[in-house]
Amino acid sequence: MAEIAAAAGEPAPTSLRTVIAASSAGTTFEWYDFFVFGSLTGVISKTFFSGLPETAGLAAALALFGAGFLFRPLGALVFGRIGDQAGRKGAFLATVLLMGGATVAIGLLPSFKQAGFIGPALLILMRIIQGFALGGEYGGAAIYVAEHAPANGRGRATSWIQTSAAFGLFGALIVILISRTVLGTEAFEAWGWRIPFLFSGVLLAVSIWMRLKLTESPEFAKLKAEGNQTKAPFREAFGQWKNLKLVLIALVAVMFAQGAVWYTSFFYVQTFMERFLKAPPPTINLLMMAATAASAVGYVFFGWLSDRIGRKPVLLFGMTLMLAAYFPAFHMLARTLNPALVEAQANTPVIVMADPADCSLQFDPVGKASFLSSCDIAKSTLANAGVSYANEAAPAGSPTLVRIGTQTIPSTAATGLSPDVAKAVKASVEGRIKTALAQGGYPEKADPKRMNLLGAFGVLLIFVTAATALYGPIAACLVELFPTRVRYTALSLPYHIGTGWVGGFVPFTAFAIVTAVGDLYSGLWFPFVFTAISVVTCVLFLPETKGRRLDA
Asked: Where does CATH 1.20.1250.20 sit in the chain?
């Protein structure tokens, strides 16, 4: 069988398995690194942004999570150029070294209390390095596997690269869960959070060992032997309309939706459950681990299905399913995990009556704003409590009032006061609002006895199905879309703009929208709009790529 495969120009099955295993192992490790940070956003905000108010600290941590994604397109360009000129193997071996080093370093950084702003500054640098490295990882791994795989099995083979994301997330969640359980919440938040970052040192060694065993991909080796590799990958990929058009189609028709759907399904949903629904972190970890385990099967199934019926119909199914599910599914998630909150919202609506000029957008990652107006104090208290509220304009100059059912609580401004006095004023307002919320039936935390965990898992399965149907065939589709000469560069840039600048900023942007608008579900409009754009452009402009020759 090996001789027949070789004669047909295809690798022997064992060779292909080795390629997939080595490529997926490195990608799993890099996703593990990135997911550890995303899953520990709450702890990170307390450790490195303790000098900021609670809401601003969380927003800063979410923004920092997104900042890692911000630099992914730069990494895509740098490593794409290396991959198209020097080879696929060397490029994604370098990415795993950078990613691993930065992640281990995060586990050793001093906190804000230990070193002031030095800790957050170093954390930002490590996140930039992580994002830069991950920008070159995915394209290299996907291309390397696809250029080894037979044409009729390319979707299934490359779907293992997507599955590696599930393994990475699952690994991150299980290491966090074990560490938190063994140490206890107090010790874990004090120093135990460092363990998942330091553990990546072991994964780094395994990944390097596996990738050093690989040879160059046959497509690139053939191109190099003929002397046809590109001398100017940027000019050829983005300066020629025939290739630039494909880059734009990949970005808008596929990657907008992929970034929005995937990061809503696996990251923003965690923020939503913990921050707004007040579900216990261990419960959230268990739910996400179960959903992630299910997703590992989904990637391979939908990759296989795309080999049978085509890439485009499978991609469209994932997009449209999520488009239909965004709002009703998140509402259902609230009813399954915190029904008391839903009941209180229906029975005791909350209204913030304030002078619009007194209200500001409560996000300040650099910590320069104080948010001490009467409106800001009221809204931050409600947002921290996970309470939706309506906004009602009050006459100019009037103090803010918070109406909770039949109760009306005046808010007080702390602007211009000394820090200690301002803190006392804010605490007084928060205390009165929280007391009124409790009297109105609003729960401080989700009640484990009333949780419908099976129902919540069912909701997550809807997200998983949409995300895996969209993500499973993507690698094969993108590889088949671009010519070999500029495949690494042309594929990597739209992929990382979509996942980095759309997906990576879903948690941060959605959270900012919620705190500004007051509706727990208003943040979903951000991923919804990007998904809708992709559905339309995918139908109109994305060609079917199944079965294309990669050297065409």
From this structure: 12-338+449-541
The pLDDT-based confidence of 30 (bands split at 50, 70, 90) is low
Residues of the chain with CATH 3.40.30: 348-439
Quote the distance between the C-alpha of residue 285 and its chain's center. Answer: 16
Q: Mean pLDDT, the chain, as a whole number?
A: 85
**Which residues, in sequence order, are bridge partners of residue 392?**
353
Rounded Cα distance between 128 and 125, Å, is 5
CA atoms within 13 A on the CB side of 452: 12
For the sheet with 401-404, list strands across it. 390-393, 350-354, 401-404, 407-410
241-288 pLDDT, tens digit per residue, is 998 999 999 999 999 999 999 989 988 998 899 888 999 988 998 898
Q: How does DSSP classify residue 367?
A: S
Angstrom distance (rounded) from CA 141 to CA 24: 7
One of 3.40.30, 3.40.50, 3.40.1350, 3.30.1300 is the CATH number of 348-439, namely 3.40.30
Task: Compute the C-alpha angle 123/362/33, nearest 5°.
Answer: 25
CB 518 within 8 A of CB 390: yes
pTM of the predicted protein model: 0.82
pLDDT tens, 349-366? Answer: 999 999 998 887 765 444
Class of domain 12-338+449-541: mainly alpha
317 C-beta neighbours (distance < 10 Å), count: 17
- Cα–Cα distance between 306 and 546 in angstroms, integer? 8
